[in-house]
Amino acid sequence: xxxxxxxxxxxxxxxxxxxxxxxxxxxxxxxxxxxxxxxxxxxxxxxxxxxxxxxxxxxxxxxxxxxxxxxxxxxxxxxxxxxxxxxxxxxxxxxxxxxxxxxxxxxxxxxxxxxxxxxxxxxxxxxxxxxxxxxxxxxxxxxxxxxxxxxxxxxxxxxxxxxxxxxxxxxxxxxxxxxxxxxxxxxxxxxxxxxxxxxxxxxxxxxxxxxxxxxxxxxxxxxxxxxxxxxxxxxxxxxxxxxxxxxxxxxxxxxxxxxxxxxxxxxxxxxxxxxxxxxxxxxxxxxxxxxxxxxxxxxxxxxxxxxxxxxxxxxxxxxxxxxxxxxxxxxxxxxxxxxxx
Length: 341
Ligand code: SAM
Prior knowledge:
The protein is α/β, with parallel strands linked by helices and about 350 residues long. Helices cover about 30% and strands about 15% of the residues.
């Protein structure tokens, strides 16, 4: 199948606040081989297969978004690399890179399967990948992920570099769990040539502990890091919630994702699709649109495109996350593994 020719791309994904939606994040599965304690409960019930979009359906919906002006696709999950035959989808979506309709196809992964997939990902047109690592201490890494093996992830990272993939490490800032490690992470990322992004923990989905106990504002971390490192502000923005600095001593970029202590919605250019075909127009709001029905009810994409238009027409202005000690429930009931981080 050929990619969409750039002259056939319409740029009609404009929301009510004049923001152009150019970035789609797609959760390709809710399943994961880790159980990161801030992300999932130890015992998770996963979705029955019939509810999950097939690889062909995922391709159809991603391609509809590309036709309507999306320039960047990120596959996430759950763990995207544990989805059976995931490379069939990645290879197929790569055709939009070849045609020039898409600027970037990328993934967020826990890295556990990267040693197997780094080469094929590069061959399919992927050039950058985000890998989540919350601790560089093997025992602690296992404690946070409940089943991950740091050695295996590092093997995957080496394979990624070998294949030519640029790597960004994502680490969630967790009070009392990894807040003594950020200097080590900056140093290690500097040595390996990785960028690093620190993320505030977000109140999404029931987990087995009280999130308020883990919440650590990144403004506090930044001030602490500034005592050791030279942090130069960068104007660079991904249109998302991250603010970037350059670490003078290592030359690498360091990002801070601050959904709680900093409002980043005014420049939001993204929407998120779950593996069941539900489109969330905002990570922190519950309003959503079902794209699975229009996908399954007709072979052509007319109804699907109309449903996308309708959904973008009600993208909200922003969200209002709080982690409140009085209200201990999550602000958003779904887990990040459902919406895709
Ligand atoms: N399995 C992949 C991974 O580990 O990166 C992709 C999915 S995971 C849900 C995506 C990102 O969301 C990870 O970096 C993870 O640390 C982050 N995440 C999950 N739950 C979160 C929460 N409640 N607050 C902040 N970040 C969260």
